[in-house]
Each structure stands twice: as structure tokens, then as C-alpha cells.
Write a structure and sequence with these properties.
The chain is of the alpha+beta class. The protein is built from 4 helices and 9 strands; from the N terminus they run αβαββββββαββα. A hairpin with a 2-residue loop joins β4 and β5. α2 crosses α4.
Amino acid sequence: MLSAARLRVRRSRGGEAAPGFAVADMREVNFAPVFDLIVAPSDPFSHLLTMAERRRALSAVAAQLSRDGRFVLEGLYRRRRETTMPRRRVRYEGGVLEIEEAWFPDGVGDLWHARYRYRDRRPRHADRTLAAAFVARSWDVSRLRRLFRSCGLRIEALWGDFDRTPFARSASRLLIVARSSAAARRAAAVDFRSRLRSSMAELSP
């Protein structure tokens, strides 16, 4: 998921063989069921705070996967305690960016308050700092399969890291691999053809 600003940067750097980018609502079905792979890194779903929004977005994924397509989600997973991440240092040409990150459960369901603090250090320049905060919803692993199934997705694997280690409660990551059901693909195809006919009718003189 890219912001509109990041999208403009990507487009400006593309060459003749650059991939295409589109701005769209992830909760809506925007394409035909043709994608062999849909990837959601860094969990954009964590910003959908209600279950209704999540169901809409997951159903849209199921509707746009091909017959053998896969959906891979890097899900937000937090155990119910305050979590402070080690300070990260990202070196770049001309300086170092320091990142502090902390997560606080708010006591309601799977909601968390995330706080970030950035410090940009460059030689012969004053440090620049920036703080950011937002609310996010993590995934309840005990309800994952039922939720995905209700949205037309069947979970094939749950991993605890990128090396495909099976997920355990002690894991620091949650990676979900899922496929769409036949019923979801059929419904998506019917809906897409209907919307396409409506769009063409609107364009007709």
C-alpha cells in the first residue's frame, strides 16, 4: 500500500518497463479476479479498526485472486503487554536516522496505541526530531480461520517469521497465506461483469 505522495515518487522514477500503479480503496473490488499473488506487507489492515471494514477488505482480496492465486499478509501480532522495540539506526548518505518505537494496549479488544519518535543526525547540522502516533488493531489468531472463511478465503499456512517457521504464540511475527474459495471467485466474476456492463452503459451516448 502506497500513499498518493509515494505513488507520485514511484511514477517519476519509472522507466519504459516500470510497473503500473493505481490509487484505490482496498475495501472495494477494483479489478477482475486475475491476480496470482496479492501481498500486504507491514499490515495495512491494522489501520482498519472495525471488523466490518476488515471483512470488506478481506472479501475484496478474495474477489480479486485468480483460481490458483495466493494472498500473503504480514499481520500485526502483539501479545497483550506493553512492547518497546530496540532503537533502530538506519544509516544513509550523510547521516543516521534513529527510530524509537513503542506499543501500548488500550484495554479494548486488540487495539493498540503506537508511538514513534524519529531523530535525524547529520554532521555539522542540528538534530531534527519528529514524533508520530496512531491506533492500530492486531489480529486475534484464535479467530483468524473463521474470519477468513467468512470472507471467502481459506488459510493454508500460518508462519512465525519469513523463514516459514510455523506460527507459535511466542512468535514476534504473523504471516498468513490464504487462497480464495471457488464460491468467492464465482461471485466476484458475476459482480465484475455486472459492474463492467453498468460502466459501459454509462459511457454509451
